[in-house]
Amino acid sequence: MSIHIEAKHGDIAETILLPGDPLRAKWIAETFFENPFCFNKVRSMLGYTGTYNGKRISVMGTGMGVPSISIYAHELITEYDVKNLIRVGTSGSYQEYIKIRDIVLAMAASSNSGVNELRFSGADYAPTANFDLFQKAVETAKEKQIPIKAGNVFTSDEFYADDFESYKKWSKFGVLCVDMETAGLYTIAAKHNVKALTILTISDSLVTGERTTARERETTFKDMVEIAIELA
């Protein structure tokens, strides 16, 4: 048992899916897992372990933002020996050609978070995906005929930015979309020499103003889960 996770050692599989929303974790477990059981209810951050095609796999919510996912990722790695951490999250598009419900694989994560600036004494650190997981995700998407985009994403500490137009300076440099967790996840995984990958579904667009509902985000983004779950 760790500070924020009440699971016993051995309750959590080496591969875990990490949605931000704990209710999406519950939906994933009930929809995709065989014989799932709940290993965590602390702070209502639901976590489950089951099997998929005979292989053990877990899923747990992480909350929103770099600090939250960094806490859970650290405890999962150091206390429960998790080796593969796969974020399955939502994101806002920064590009006109990236539409609602498109799937994005995050190759790297730019950020306005100050966490790594503190960690590296003012120097820039570029958090990146694990190549093995990335390559397997690309191959799985091709096999399942699920179109994907891949590239740099932006991890923001702000959901409601003071300057709404500020996303445009990132989009001009090819950044695909924005989330609030990937830079934190990739950094913690690198620190502990484990594998991490973020797979995102576009839930809204900063370019067009389109957006999906909270219920749709919780229960209908199946394509990214179908890719992620094969990585176990």
Automatic annotation (TrEMBL):
GO MF, one annotated term = purine-nucleoside phosphorylase activity
EC class, as a word, reads transferase
What catalytic activity does the UniProt entry give for this protein?
uridine + phosphate = alpha-D-ribose 1-phosphate + uracil
Record's GO cellular component, any one?
cytosol
Q: Does the keyword Ribonucleoprotein apply?
A: no
- EC number(s) stated in the UniProt entry for this protein: 2.4.2.3
- Ranges of residues in domain Nucleoside phosphorylase: 16-223
Q: Which UniProt keywords apply?
A: Glycosyltransferase, Transferase
Q: Which BP terms does GO give this entry?
A: purine nucleoside catabolic process
Pfam families, sorted: PNP_UDP_1 (PF01048)
Q: Which PANTHER family match?
A: FI09636P-RELATED, URIDINE PHOSPHORYLASE
The family assignment reads:
Belongs to the PNP/UDP phosphorylase family.
Q: What is this protein identified as? A: Uridine phosphorylase
Name the encoding gene, please.
deoD
